[in-house]
Amino acid sequence: MTLSYDDELREQIRVRLAQHDRRVVTDPTKRHAAVAVVLVDSELGEDRVDPAPVDAWIADRPMPGGLDGHMVDVAGGAAFLLCRRTSRLSSHAAQWALPGGQLDPGETIIDAALRELDEELGVRLTESSVLGLLDDYPTRSGYVITPVVLWGGGRIELRPAPDEVVAAYRVGLHQLLREDSPRFITIPESPRPVVQIPLGNDLIHAPTGAVLLQLRWLGLEGCHDPVAQFEQPLFAWK
């Protein structure tokens, strides 16, 4: 069942974020970054073809459970924006990500999220679109990420920047509520469980997966549990 993109959902998420005792991470050894969790409207069945060259990226890498890496048939109703990074980037190439990046000197978290959203997807929103912030998430690659939840205001045009984003997707919030989500696996390199969020025909890992899990738990279910304890896969450590 898709979720309606309406004022009731907007107010529910805004109130739950306002009532949340947000967990802040202060680590001078890490750089501060912001990501934009943009809530928009979407149409069921508009994404039956994946525009990204996923087959070339995956090559012969084995995929679990018959997954093929494509993000298809996920749209419908209230949704969030998800990016597939280009393969030309020097770090985290071809990975799933929310629009975002490092704070510029003197820049606020909200300003950074709004700027990165404009630079990566060509979407211009104002501070009035902010619903609230999720918990900070410290990454293995040297960042503390602060997620900024934004209300996109309906159907918006996406213009991905080709140097950074090969494709952008509208993923229905109902996908976060799948019965097989979340998943957890273990790796020998860490005692912490690695979180996986099944979306389409792929698995979204932390840090993006951790942010999306808290969006579900807090925004959709009213649960205030933390997510920073969940591990990233090895390919995200660099």
Brief digest:
The protein has 238 residues and is α+β, with helices and mostly antiparallel strands.
What is the H level of CATH, i.e. the homologous superfamily of the domain at 7-51 and 72-178?
A: Nucleoside Triphosphate Pyrophosphohydrolase
Our estimate of the beta-strand percent is 25-35%
In helices, the fraction of residues equals 10-25%
What's the mean pLDDT score?
Answer: 93
Q: Alpha-carbon distance between the termini? A: 37 Å
Could you walk me through the main structural features you see in this protein, from its secondary elements to its overall organization?
It is built from 4 helices and 11 strands, in the order αβαβββαβββββββα. With 238 residues, it is of the alpha+beta class. The protein has a domain at 7-51 and 72-178: Nucleoside Triphosphate Pyrophosphohydrolase. Strands 1, 2, 3, 4, 5, 6, 7 and 8 form an 8-stranded mixed β-sheet that branches. A 3-stranded antiparallel β-sheet has the order 9-10-11, with helices on one face. A hairpin with a 2-residue loop joins β9 and β10. The chain is globular. The relative contact order is 0.22.
